[in-house]
Design brief:
The complex is a heterodimer of chains A (328) and B (371). Chain A is of the alpha+beta class and 328 residues long. Chain A has two domains: 180 residues, 3-Layer(aba) Sandwich (Cytidine Deaminase, domain 2); 127 residues, Ubiquitin-like modifier-activating enzyme ATG7 C-terminal domain (Cytidine Deaminase, domain 2), CATH 3.40.140. Chain A has nine helices and 18 strands. The longest helix of chain A has 17 residues. Chain A is globular, with a radius of gyration of 21 Å. Chain A starts with a strand and ends with a helix. Chain B is globular, with a radius of gyration of 23 Å. Chain B is an alpha+beta fold. Chain B has one domain. The longest helix of chain B has 25 residues. The chains are: A alpha+beta (328), B alpha+beta (371). Chains A and B meet through strand 2, helix 1, strand 5, helix 2 and helix 3 of A and helix 1, strand 2, strand 3 and helix 7 of B. Strand 5 of chain A pairs parallel with strand 3 of chain B, so a sheet runs across the interface. Chain B: Keywords: Autophagy, Cytoplasm, Protein transport, Transport, Ubl conjugation pathway. Chain B: Belongs to the ATG3 family. Chain B: It is found in: Cytoplasm. Chain B: It comes from Polyporus arcularius HHB13444.
């Protein structure tokens, strides 16, 4: 059996976010480097077909931070789901460099673990951390995202292959899931089909919802930001940690639906349903129901593929003198 | 200087009256109500487009508060327009203006088909008339004069990539060892058979030919020119915002130096975005609409005669049009003597996107063809 590899989140920061940060920094935060709540969104993974080679190209597994990330009522785009995070801005580049990142990271990981074990909630499974330093005079923004995910020991393996969900579950089930998910978008959900009636429910209702459903008819779905055929997206990792902690029997086998269909497939267009389906299990799973928090990983790599900060240089788009040059 | 110019434009837009009566067939211009109607249609048919409120202080009172502009995120852009030999195609796409040439149906077919980023199948089939490319510098002297000297990627733009020296050296040992369950970009065992590439990998695989950028595309209503206006914010494959000169690489050569500029986005207090200047939109749209209208009317007349079943509409627009006009058509068939309506204003933005696709050929703004 193959170890399941998860496609990490990739941060996508819209310029509007940096504008919002500039305003927040000047008008509200000033010299404070307190943590702020922040909201990001992600959608199901998309692939585009290259018209010249006919190849499907998977777009990034993006977590998007937009201009209203700091607002108390952020606007979640249609078909997207929200994730909340912790934002911390440092006043100097030295503070940014010397910050105790391990402590910050562990703090967020602890929060996630507490929400799983104490609150038994999925609300914080996608919690993330972003630290920044804003060089407002030069329009440069240094930032580093972390998406803490618990490492399962032993690792999850896939029983067989990742399949097209349409083959495994049937198009009717999928279109029923699609319409219910469209009506109430949620990042994680349970699916059951009884007498051709497919219903979905929040993962928190696992015990009631699956009371009379044999394990081979239980399907646990999540909105999958990855579009790679054999790599489910990052959110699945913490979902599996949640299942393992609260429903240890899932270690023997859990049926996972990687939801990648924002819209039902259009008749006549190529492809069909894009969601993936797989049967995961932990081989040799012993009494791994430890109550200690598993170790977590998830710092984002920079452009060079190393663990390090990224920089957004908005001078070409924000610096009035540079813009004036452009417009001559 | 640029600031003054922008102020001038802002004042000019403020002073110009709101277009009241429908003129889209005569001038290619639309009223705010028609913009909203066309936007509703676009957002309904193609849910990737959504209405946005924008910044409340910048809201335009002639548009509904929750329908200030249209937005779609993450539009893929696989190649650079500058690397494509695209000018000929672009010309061909806009060559519908010569009325004495060819039948309407044939022309339309070609126009719809010869489309963004697609390898031109029937290249050379039609040499095309190039008189009507919208960016020719007749008239609008202020605009062209203002932008003629724009140099892209010139010496004024040395810092195309962020200055690596200034990135704090922060590679840190935060995680012990490699995590076996993380799909590392280079360990993605993507079998060629399943034909899916990861965007970050593409560049390596294709020797720099393919760099998947994504764009956020906005459509606003320009009160002065009474047309929609398109705005672009781009990101490279790592999610880093693109610089203006990088954005110009995705604009067809004919337009990059003349009609596309970086300006303040009107529904935000501070955001700058690349925009296609709308000074020629109306005249181009008028020509397109005339052309299409002809086809649509013919189609509707054909439907009246009851021959529509044999004459199967071949192209998307016909199909869409007749699909949407189903009620009209049904009514027409029933009553027999209904008036032929022609193209409806709802399609304005759909058509507009096809026109924009010719300016930014590699950005797939025109999602409508997938239908």
């Amino acid at each position: 059996m193959t170890i399941v590899q998860f496609a990490p989140f990739q941060s996508l920061v819209q310029p509007a976010f940096w504008h919002a940060l500039t305003e927040l920094k000047i008008d509200v935060l000033r010299l404070s480097d307190d943590e702020q709540p922040v909201t990001a969104t992600y959608t199901a993974g998309r692939a585009v077909k290259d018209r010249e080679t006919g190849q499907e190209i998977a777009l990034g597994c993006n977590l998007t931070v937009s201009g209203d990330a700091f607002s108390k009522t952020p606007q979640v785009p249609q078909n997207a789901v929200a994730a909340t995070g912790v934002f911390k801005n440092f006043n100097t580049i030295e503070d940014f460099k010397n910050a105790d990142k391990t402590a910050l990271f562990n703090q967020v990981a602890d929060e996630i673990w507490k929400s799983i074990t104490v609150d038994k909630s999925t609300a914080l499974l996608n919690r993330f951390l972003v630290i920044t330093y804003a060089d407002l005079k030069k329009y440069k923004y240094f930032y580093w995202f972390a998406f803490p995910a618990f490492a399962a020991k032993p690792a999850w393996e896939i029983d067989g292959e990742w399949l097209a969900a349409e083959n495994a579950l049937g198009a009717e089930t999928l279109s029923s899931v699609q319409s219910q998910l469209h009506a109430s978008p949620r990042p994680f959900f349970l699916v059951r089909t009884i007498e051709n009636q497919t219903t979905i429910a929040p993962v928190e209702e696992y015990d009631i919802f699956y009371a009379n459903v044999p394990p081979e008819h239980r399907v646990i779905g999540f909105v999958d930001p990855s579009a790679l055929p054999t790599n489910p997206g990052w959110p699945l990792r913490n979902l599996l940690a949640y299942l393992l902690a609260l429903h240890p029997e899932t270690a023997q086998g859990v049926r996972i639906l990687c939801w990648r269909d924002v819209e039902p497939p259009v008749a006549g267009s190529s492809g069909g349903w894009k969601s993936r389906f797989g049967m995961l299990k932990q081989s040799g799973a012993g009494a791994a129901t430890a109550t200690d928090r598993p170790s977590a990983v998830g710092w984002e790599k920079n452009i060079q593929g190393k663990l390090g900060a990224r920089v957004a240089d908005l001078a070409p788009m924000m610096d009035p003198t540079r813009l004036a040059d452009q417009a001559v | 200087m640029h600031t003054i110019q922008q102020q001038y434009w802002a004042v000019r837009e403020y002073l110009s009256p709101v277009l009241k009566e429908s003129k889209f067939k005569e001038h290619g211009r639309i009223t705010p109500e028609e913009f909203v109607a066309a936007g509703d249609f676009l957002a309904y048919k193609f849910p990737v487009w959504t209405w946005e409120k924008g910044d409340a202080s910048k809201a335009r009172d002639y548009l509904p508060a929750d329908k200030q502009y249209l937005l779609t995120r993450g539009v893929p852009c696989l190649r650079r327009a500058s690397t494509l030999e695209y000018t000929e195609d672009a010309e061909r796409m806009l060559s519908f203006a010569d009325p004495k040439e060819g039948g309407a149906a044939g022309k339309e077919e070609e126009w719809v088909e010869t489309h963004a980023g697609r390898a031109g199948g029937e290249a050379g089939a039609n040499p095309g008339t190039i008189d009507d490319i919208p960016d020719v510098d007749d008239g609008e002297a202020e605009v062209t004069a203002g932008m003629g000297g724009l140099s892209v990627g010139g010496s004024k733009e040395p810092a195309e990539i962020p200055d690596m020296d200034e990135i704090p050296d922060m590679e840190e040992d935060l995680e012990d060892g490699e995590d076996e369950a993380t799909a590392a970009p280079n360990s993605k065992l993507v079998a060629p058979s399943d034909g899916v590439l990861d965007a970050s990998e593409v560049e390596v695989a294709k020797g720099n030919l393919l760099q998947v950028r994504t764009y956020d595309v906005m459509i606003t209503y320009d009160k002065y020119y009474q047309t929609p206006r398109i705005w672009l914010i781009g990101y490279d494959e790592n999610g880093t915002p693109l610089t203006p000169s990088q954005i110009f690489q995705d604009v067809s050569a004919d337009h990059a130096f003349k009609t596309v500029t970086i300006e303040a986005f009107p529904h935000s207090t501070s955001l700058q975005a690349a925009s296609v200047h709308p000074c020629k939109h109306a005249s181009v749209m008028k020509k397109v609409i005339e052309r299409m209208n002809q086809g649509v009317i013919e189609e509707q007349q054909a439907a009246k005669k009851g021959s529509s079943k044999d004459a199967k509409p071949k192209k998307w627009l016909f199909r869409r049009t007749s699909g949407n006009g189903k009620d009209d058509k049904a009514a027409a068939a029933a009553a027999g003597e209904e008036e032929v309506e022609g193209m409806r204003v709802d399609f304005y933005l759909v058509v507009f996107l096809k026109f924009i696709a010719s300016i930014v050929p590699t950005i797939e703004v025109d999602s409508t063809t997938s239908f």
